[in-house]
Amino acid sequence: MIEILLDATVRAGTPILFATLGTIINERAGIINLGIEGLMLIGALSGFAGTYLSGSLLVGVIAAFCATMLAGAIHALITVQLRGNQIVCGLALTMFGIGITALFGRGMVGLTIDGFQRLAIPGLSQLPLVGKPFFNQDLLIYLSFVLVIAISLFFYHTRWGLALRAIGENPAAADTCGVAINRYRFLAVTIGSGIVGIGGAYLSLVTTPMWIENMTSGRGWIAVALVIFASWSSYRALAGAYLFGGITAMQLRFQAMGTTVSAHLLQMLPYIFTILVLVISTVRLQKGISQQPESLGKPYDREDRK
């Protein structure tokens, strides 16, 4: 029972984890991106379309990554190069993603593909309790594990990661040290958006190997809240994403057990928890406990440097 619940938790939390990791990269550079929901939808559609047309799941993942990088580049152009309002641009990106996927995905509704299959790691997959949930999964879940470690190592053990964190904290100081602010921010937003897109592709290539309009069902907004809850840490993002995945898995389990509680109330559980997370995170921010980048959401112009 516990093993089954853990397995469902990992699979339900993985798309949120990808989205959260990508958003962390965005915000570590000081750029707010509220277009995560739209990016996930773009990734889901482009991943499914790439796989359906080519017959290759790898092509689908690459297509999702590239398509969302392109969409993220639009956000980067407006917010970094043109110093536009990051909140408005992010909301516009979400609406754009919802609209364009509904338009171009109409012809693919009802089509199916063969999604990613489980790939057991010899030895580890036989471990009691944690073997199947963590070591008998698909390749994208293993990729998410690698990304959690790689992103943490990048930020805290490389010169480029240090520069990116410095930009998020104090871009003027980083500028005086010769760091190319706009270039770093542009790359952070585009690459982070690509990782978000893989989270969307997970839904259409693993969770339900088909295209369904608005299939993200608010997961992008959950990821935005989870970034704050995780204090911009990839390891905490892993724990937080699985916490949300566990809540989703439990509400599905309750429905399967035929509970008398309304299915609509059970479906509300992840979003109620999101609200609680935001309340807790806001309190932490007010108390100065949070590790929010100091320049998050603030455009940088060298001419304004004091």
Describe this structure in words.
By secondary structure, the protein is mostly helical. The chain has one domain: Orthogonal Bundle (ABC transporter involved in vitamin B12 uptake, BtuC). Helices cover 71% and strands 1% of the residues. It contains twelve helices and two strands. The protein has a two-stranded antiparallel sheet. Helix 6 crosses helix 7 and helix 10 crosses helix 11 (234-256). The radius of gyration is 19 Å and the shape is globular. The N and C termini lie far apart (60 Å). The mean pLDDT is 90.
Question: Short summary of the structure?
Answer:
This protein has 306 residues and is mainly alpha-helical. Helices cover 71% and strands 1% of the residues. The model has no long low-confidence stretch (mean pLDDT 90).
H/I helix tally: 12
C-alpha termini separation: 60 Å
User: How many domains make up the coordinates?
Assistant: 1
User: Pairing-aware structural class of the strands and helices?
Assistant: mainly alpha
What is the correct CATH architecture?
Orthogonal Bundle
CATH topology: ABC transporter involved in vitamin B12 uptake, BtuC
Instruction: Tell me how many strands there are.
Output: 2
Mean pLDDT: 90
